[in-house]
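Structure first, sequence second, as always.
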């Protein structure tokens, strides 16, 4: 691991192993630990058995912990679009942040400005589809809420680094019942084992102004548009 213009420091973590899959995803997290030294200490502690490839501080300092060719231990029990070993298929980035348990707040501009070139380089290196730049809550909806409803996904989408929230809903509400919505949600990529939590995760990402775990016409229309765009090839 070498320091460059994007990565400001390298602190090697022992918590990694070998990948079993090629990289096709990028997963964003928050640490939910303050100060940052607490999170950093945990990710380099062999007893903790957790890590990520990168940690981005609120001041915009990017620290690499695990080489990208290795499998960091950031996603835990997770699933996305058929992948049950998300750790093997992904690069994990932790964002220094108090999280929902420590006074949830907006992410700092300095942090976001440091994150953008890092994500851009990773996406370009591995040709990661925009639909596979996701949050921890997307791949582990029953367990996780990070990076949460205040993460600026649409700002990231302006750089072409993740999917934007659909603004034009061409077909309105197309699903006849909740069961058809859940099947479509699974088709899009989510684990629907816990349906309520899966809906919350979808809302947190795509309709963050209202997160109640209830299926309604607006999120049905958003999901259908996402699938329609993907089938057209517009959502890569």
């Amino acid at each position: 691991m070498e320091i460059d213009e994007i990565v400001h420091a390298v602190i090697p973590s022992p918590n990694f192993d070998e990948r079993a899959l090629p990289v096709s995803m990028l997963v964003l997290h928050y640490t939910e630990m303050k100060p940052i030294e607490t999170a950093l200490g945990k990710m380099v502690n062999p007893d903790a058995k957790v890590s990520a490839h990168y940690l981005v501080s609120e001041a915009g300092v990017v620290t690499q912990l695990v080489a990208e060719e290795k499998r960091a231990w950031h996603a835990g029990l997770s699933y996305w679009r058929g992948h049950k070993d998300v750790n093997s298929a992904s690069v994990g980035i932790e964002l220094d942040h108090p999280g929902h348990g420590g006074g949830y707040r907006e992410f700092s501009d300095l942090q976001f400005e440091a994150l953008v070139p890092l994500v851009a380089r990773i996406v370009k290196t591995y040709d990661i589809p925009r639909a596979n730049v996701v949050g921890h809550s997307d791949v582990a909806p029953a367990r996780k809420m990070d990076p949460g409803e205040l993460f600026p996904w649409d700002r990231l989408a302006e750089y072409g680094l993740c999917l934007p929230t659909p603004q034009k809903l061409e077909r309105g509400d197309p699903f006849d019942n909740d069961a058809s919505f859940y099947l479509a949600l699974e088709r899009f990529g989510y684990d629907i084992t816990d349906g309520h939590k899966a809906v919350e995760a979808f809302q947190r990402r795509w309709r963050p102004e209202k997160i109640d775990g209830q299926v309604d016409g607006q999120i049905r229309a958003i999901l259908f548009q996402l699938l329609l765009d993907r089938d057209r090839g517009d959502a890569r």
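Margin note: The first helix runs from residue 36 to 43.
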